[in-house]
Amino acid sequence: MTATPVTTKPMLLGLPQFKDTAQLKDMNRELAAAQRRDRKAQREAGLEGSMLRGVFVGSHNPEAAQEEYLPAMKHWMGRMREWFSPVVILRTLDSTDNTGSKILGLPPYYDHSLTIKPLDWDMENFARGYIEDCPIVGMSKNFYVEFRRSILHPHMNPTEEQSWTKPKSLDEWDVSPTRSMKLDVLAKLLKYHLESNGRQPLMMEESGRDLVPNPAFKGGNTHPGEPYRILILSGVVVVCAFL
């Protein structure tokens, strides 16, 4: 049993499809060819066709080259899921038991997404580091890690001119000329909810830079006798140390 079935040796599960080396070689050739074509198309698209421009305008860049690798990967991942399906049971948050009750057993929850607008200082650093210096995805072997760190704060990729320095207090952070919008929103969110239990959820104003109470939800604590807890999870491991 594993949380990630593909890490379980397919041979141990007796899956005959994974013994078909010719089929697996076809998969590797197809994915490698799609990746080569993507890189060529990205080079030909140049600066104007960079997929990173979508980060700045909040939508897909219409000038970006058509990607072939992701559709090919989805195709093969779909086939692999079919191969695993007879021997793997998938469980999600919405899975139910034989009586129709959810296995997780937690009360209903809500997902509050906050769409932020980076500060001008954020945008200048994005443009200088990733559009002007490295316009084509994949040019740097550390591109993904560096880019994800820079979204949290540009100084998290140290250079000779700059490096990340942890602020001593929230007051110091508030007046810092190198605040990043993403960290700023996180700090305000934590401060707001830790000031008292059961506060009304927040939402982002149209400006994308200010948090206000969400009128669609009321405050309240389902467990008033217990202390309020906040758990911060990051989908990108490399930024956890900074958080």
Word description of this protein:
With 243 residues, the protein is mainly α. The protein is 37% helix and 2% strand. It has 7 helices and 2 strands; from the N terminus they run αααααααββ. It has helices at 21-45, 53-57, 69-84, 120-132, 143-152, 170-174, 181-195; strands at residues 202-204, 211-213.
Could you name the key traits of this structure?
flat, 7 helices, mainly alpha, 37% helix, single chain
In short:
Helix content is 37%, strand content 2%. With 243 residues, it is mainly α.
Write the layout of secondary structure elements.
Layout: H1 21-45, H2 53-57, H3 69-84, H4 120-132, H5 143-152, H6 170-174, H7 181-195, E1 202-204, E2 211-213
Antiparallel strand pairs: 1-2
Per DSSP, the total helix count is 7
The N- and C-terminal alpha carbons lie at a distance of 32 Å
- Shape descriptor: flat
Radius of gyration over C-alpha positions, nearest whole angstrom: 23 Å
| E-strand count | 2
Q: Which residue ranges are poorly predicted, with pLDDT under 50 across at least 5 consecutive positions? A: 135-139
User: In order across it, which strands form the biggest sheet?
Assistant: 1-2
